[in-house]
Write a structure and sequence with these properties.
With 353 residues, this protein is mainly α. It has twelve helices and three strands.
């Protein structure tokens, strides 16, 4: 009786071994005891001293310090900061220092005259530092801070708003950047941050919008004249902002009031319905958002008083109650039955005032 041949294991597909291993031909140790002597640029076997390679490139970081050698505890590190896209020039120039009684006075004067962009960069750095501090104090993300810096640089490069205080321009750039990044802030909040009057912020905002739109239109016309495609949307591309709506403020206000995600979504939907029906026509976005939150919080059994909401939204509780009366009058048109399914909401819990 013939027996079946044993099954052969499946052969593994051939693969090239690209691992390059260096070993000493005399010692043949594995792993090899190799020492890199960066001072001479040689690779040497640590066991027998045989030189296995020369002109080795030092791939280590080039951070060096001379703090122990220089007088005055100066530390001229050989490695500088990376290039900053928000500053002008290559930023790779060498600065010639000058100390009284030392050499290099004429060179220092010549370099100071040649580097005209240095003072401008100092002004930009000071403005960027102020923008970063303002954005950090408001808890804004880095993309908002970078957008505001980009807008400020465009204004500074084109000298568009000569004579305007720098604080007002910074406030306007932060206001526009918040809108562009879909985290809008009100004039009142920007005023509380920068101490620039609300009317001044509004005037600067309108001027900045006009300047940026004209710049964008000019760039597109120049591109078409050259036969190129219009500039694509990028970090330098200016997006025209729209006015802040109550819907845009809901997430931040509801989070500060510790309302649930479902309650936040319903408040957003209610604000959109109220805007469509014109229930709160003529009301500011802040008072509209606060009134919608006031109604939804009671409707969804997470009641928040008008005083609590006023502390978050920055409007008086009387304003919230007056706006709420209009919502309460149209409650049957505004409240969707889906919100009440399963006992999640109860329209009878709504206060009359």
């Amino acid at each position: 009786m013939a027996t079946a041949a044993p099954a052969q294991p499946p052969s593994k597909a051939w693969e090239a071994n690209h691992n390059v291993q260096v070993m000493c031909p005399d010692c043949r140790e594995m792993p090899a005891n190799l020492v890199e002597e960066f001072s001479s640029g040689d690779m040497v076997c640590g066991s027998c001293g045989l030189v296995l390679g020369d002109r080795i490139v030092d791939t280590r970081s080039e951070w060096r310090t001379f703090s122990n050698d220089d007088q005055g505890n100066d530390d001229p590190s050989r490695v500088g900061d990376g290039a900053n896209p928000f500053l002008n020039g290559s930023q790779l120039e060498t600065s010639i220092s000058y100390t009284p009684g030392g050499a290099g006075r004429d060179l220092h004067r010549a370099q100071s005259k040649a580097t005209a962009q240095k003072n401008n960069n100092k002004t930009l750095l000071a403005a960027y530092k102020e923008i970063g501090a303002f954005c950090d104090s408001m808890g804004l993300l880095k993309n908002v801070s970078d957008s505001a810096k980009q807008l400020f640089k465009r204004v500074d490069d084109n000298k568009s708003l000569k004579g305007k205080p720098q604080e007002a321009i910074i406030a306007g750039c932060i206001f526009i950047a918040c809108r562009q990044e879909r985290v809008p802030r009100t004039f009142r909040e920007i005023f509380a941050l920068t101490k620039v009057p609300k009317k001044e912020i509004g005037r600067v905002f309108k001027q900045l919008e006009k300047v940026f739109n004209e710049q964008q239109r000019t760039e597109e016309e120049e591109a078409r004249a050259k036969g190129d495609e219009p500039p694509v949307v990028s970090a330098a591309h200016y997006k025209t902002t729209s006015s802040t709506k109550a819907h845009d403020l809901m997430i931040r206000y509801c989070n500060n009031l510790h309302l649930s995600q479902n309650c936040t979504a319903i408040a957003q939907e209610l604000s959109s319905k109220a805007a469509f029906l014109g229930t709160l026509a003529g009301r500011s976005p802040i008072s509209s958002a606060a009134a919608c939150i006031y109604l939804v919080s009671y409707l969804m059994k997470q009641p928040k008083s008008a005083k609590e909401i006023s502390q978050v939204a920055g409007v008086s509780d009387g304003t919230i109650r007056n706006a709420y009366k209009h919502l309460y009058a149209d409650r049957h048109k505004l409240i969707d039955q889906r919100w009440l399914e399963g006992g999640k909401g109860d329209i009878s819990l709504l206060p009359t005032s």
